[in-house]
Amino acid sequence: MTSEVALTVNGAAPRRLAVPDSERLLDTLRWRLGLKGTKEGCRTGDCGACTVLVDGETTLSCLTLTHEVQDRAVTTVEGIAEDPEGRRVLAAFAAEDALQCGYCTPGFVVSLTGIRKELGASAPDSAVIEALQGNLCRCTGYLAIVRAVARIGNGNP
Amino acid sequence: MTFSLARPSTIVEALRLLADDTEGPTAPLAGGTDLLLDLDDGRSTARRLVSLDKLPWKTLAWDGPRLNVGATLPLARLGSDATVRARLPGLSEGVDAVGSLALRHRATLGGNLGRAAPASDLLPILLAVDATVRLVGTAGRRELPVARFLRGSRQVDLAKDELIESVSIPEARLSTYVWQRVRPANDVSQVGVAVARSGSSASWRLALGGVLPVPTRIPEAEVHLTEERPRPEDVELAANAAATHARFVTDKRASEAYRRRLVATLVRRAVARAQIPPGER
Ligand SMILES: Cc1cc2nc3c(=O)[nH]c(=O)nc-3n(C[C@H](O)[C@H](O)[C@H](O)COP(=O)(O)OP(=O)(O)OC[C@H]3O[C@@H](n4cnc5c(N)ncnc54)[C@H](O)[C@@H]3O)c2cc1C
Ligand code: FES
Ligand code: FES
Prior knowledge:
The structure holds 2 protein chains of 2 kinds.
Chain A: E1 2-9, E2 15-20, H1 25-32, E3 51-54, E4 57-60, E5 73-75, H2 84-95, H3 105-119, H4 125-131, H5 142-153
Helix pairs in contact in A: 2-3, 2-5
Chain B: E1 4-6, H1 11-19, E2 26-29, H2 35-40, E3 48-51, E4 60-63, E5 66-70, H3 75-79, H4 82-87, H5 89-97, H6 101-104, H7 109-115, H8 123-128, E6 132-137, E7 140-145, H9 146-149, E8 150-152, E9 155-156, E10 162-170, E11 174-180, E12 191-197, E13 205-209, E14 216-217, H10 219-222, H11 232-245, H12 256-274
Parallel strand pairs in B: 1-3, 2-3
Antiparallel strand pairs in B: 4-5, 5-10, 6-7, 6-10, 8-9, 11-12, 12-13, 13-14
The structure holds flavin-adenine dinucleotide and FE2/S2 (inorganic) cluster (2 copies).
One FE2/S2 (inorganic) cluster (FES) is lined by residues 99-104, 137-139, 141 of chain A.
């Protein structure tokens, strides 16, 4: 079945779209809204590449039905620079060259933004890194990502 | 797999939708972190999902010495509650073990009970504190201990037109959940051990997960753990009893022999850890 859903994405006015009931948010974002920054890594909840914020909280868009986020605010990597915390994360990733192929990067950037907002600016790096454990980097470029976390923790993006 | 989705706003409407199979097999949807994958690989044949998102069950409240957790409360909100961590540390530690933070923003306690997976990280602690599941159905409400709700691997005592409404969990300041797995996040525990000493019980209760067919208490180990601070020789007896009396399997995650050794080690670790105040663990 297909029915209408009102989606609020990246701060824009709600958009009404006809979406199949069984469609995942990941697919709606990428294929109906053209927001291809959100990546599909595994589609099974294991890799975090598809992470978006729903009402500010990190959410796996591959395991979320589009209709379930009706009336909630969705933020993808394309909108993350609107958020001061998101800007800090982007600057730290750039300063530390915290990417190799870049496939996992949108997921890491969105996750880290959500985690910083949820745990608070004074959270120790160790807690932030623990909360990032659901994001995988197939290039195994973790050291630079950990340096980016530390850079933000030092208030020095 | 395609299916239709209903998003009722009342319990009565949700139960009516669940009872009606005219559109094909129907299943309740909470966080979907199990169900959507089960639909993808054909383990679930549901053709209509009934979302519980709008029901008033995202609740967390103490009622004297018992914690009531609404079935659809995201696990992340349970995990971040400082009072729960102080009064029921074993529950918070079970929650910490589930998947990743992003997963816990959607996954729920009701869904974990509904799935009744052999390697669940939440069922061992619910068994060790003797929690009660509260159900609501077309025929009315009933409640039963988690131990009786779990019928077997992925089998629970739940009618088609019945839902888990909440879980009632007794306070247990002396409780912990410890686990072992290959990767810390988004991996399945090879073995999980919960121990707890709560008001109603004269001795420690001990439950294992990752041991088929479903998480289970091990009374043969509990009999050695009667004292609040068990003597080292009693802990040793309990660890050996748990390793002897549990039924173990070999699967891709670990061999039977490895699991037996793990259980003994984790029982020792759990009993020691449960004595440490939550803030210092
Ligand atoms: C990547 C990944 C990692 C995971 N890691 C772990 C882990 O470490 N430990 C662990 O224990 N689990 C883990 N899981 C499994 C899963 O996340 C948990 O079991 C979770 O608690 C399920 O909750 P849910 O709300 O998503 O359930 P759903 O998927 O929505 O539902 C699960 C089942 O319960 C039924 N159901 C849901 N709510 C109710 C209700 N209120 N009343 C009656 N029936 C209901 C559904 O119909 C379905 O059959 C993982 C899953 C993934 C995808
Ligand atoms: S694509 Fe969603 S977690 Fe991997
Ligand atoms: S940079 Fe290639 S997957 Fe992380």
